[in-house]
Amino acid sequence: MSFPRYPKYKDSGVEWLGQVPEHWEAIRYKNVFEEKFVEAGGALPLGSISFGRVVFKSDEFFNEATKATYQEVLAGEFLINPINLNYDLKSLRTALSEINTCVSPAYIVLKAKGTPDKDFLKHQLHAFDLFHMKTLGAGVRQTITFADIGACRTYLPPLPEQTRITAFLDQETAKIDELVTEQERLMALLKEKRQAVISHAVTKGLNNSDVPLRRLKFLVDSIETGFTPNSYGHPAQAGQCGVLKSGCVNHGVFDPEENKLLDEKVDPPADLEVKAGDVLMSRASGSSDLIGSVALVHETPLPRLFLSDKTFRVSQKHELVEAEYFVWAMNSKFLRTQISQIISGAEGLAKNIAQSNIRELLMPVPDIDAQKAIVCFIRKEVERFDTLTAEAQRAIDLLQERRTALISAAVTGQIDVRNH
């Protein structure tokens, strides 16, 4: 649906705004907002910004002394994340809080001056964040202050028009959000059916008959883990050495970018270098859902990567079990159910699985020819489900882009929605 433009425009003199409706008035953000003095909020639940919304987060294991330094932000107040603007260019860093919470003192808390339409300001701040705020700030962490924001000029319509724009956006974004929800439901259904197909093929074969079970201790030659050397936070690049993080194995997919650069003084054991054909298993993680995930390394990554103490390398008996079949079987519901029962570790802390328990797991094991046929079948089915899932994700991306563009156009006066 296309929307008309305003009858007359003027040059705003603000690069990210361009032309604005002739009757909109120029104002600096320091005259729209005032910074709230830091008020202790440690008695309130812990919160943070998450993609344009203020949300609660668990404080069960949070240090009380640290929380005592946190500041309050109340419903109806604005919150801005002003640090690391150059690190994450996707997140929305401004929000209008709908909850009472406490947040890191690094956040900026603002109150609106006068009686503007706060929802209109929320939407315009998001546009300001997307198109201009990330160009402000300085230093390695590209940090800004309210002085940086307050000095920026914007244009606002009269209050009744702000309210009309907000009502229009509420109506239109609700429609888009429902379409997104439908696509998300479809993706969840596809994921469920994908897993069901894999599990049925592994446990019932292609002839819908029971497959013999064998314990892993009879199917593997060795289960080895790596080491925990000094490492840096950023990933290794070509010509460097990195150590794999637990997230390198995620539900059947090997992600070589999940690594940390090794200290150049470290000389890692050559036999712990990850090679094409290796079967890796996540041993320890904060997420039970990832522990025990298995993936096949199809290609040797560009940087040299080494096994960490968070990951197992499983060497199976190739005459008994084919590598790719082993991976699909380990990620099937039949094995995942068993794995969930052998995970140890207190709630909220890192969890792990022991080699001795892994060896006692039961796996359906047909003969090698049947395994190869099952692998071919699963590949085709998974490709079909993944194609459908990718299409649904593309639809979501387009809808989200449409949502962002619509909001930005409305709150910067690029479209006239007063009669909608």
CATH architecture call of the domain at 212-365: Alpha-Beta Complex
CATH fold-level name of the domain at 212-365 = Adenine-n6-DNA-methyltransferase TaqI, Chain A, domain 2
Beta strand %: 15-25%
Helix content estimate: 25-40%
> What CATH first level of the domain at 212-365 would be assigned?
Alpha Beta
Low-confidence stretches: none
Major sheet summary line: 4 strands, antiparallel
Report the CATH superfamily of the domain at 212-365. Answer: DNA methylase specificity domains
What's the overall geometry? Answer: elongated
Total beta strands: 25
Explain this structure.
The protein is α+β, with helices and mostly antiparallel strands and 420 residues long. Among the domains are: 25-156, Alpha-Beta Complex (Adenine-n6-DNA-methyltransferase TaqI, Chain A, domain 2), CATH 3.90.220; 212-365, DNA methylase specificity domains (Adenine-n6-DNA-methyltransferase TaqI, Chain A, domain 2), CATH 3.90.220. The protein is built from eight helices and 25 strands. The chain has a four-stranded antiparallel beta sheet, covered by helices on one side. A four-stranded antiparallel beta sheet has the order 14-23-19-21, covered by helices on one side. Strands 18-15-22 form a three-stranded mixed beta sheet, with no helix packed on it. Strand 1 and strand 2 (19-21) form a beta hairpin. The termini are close together.
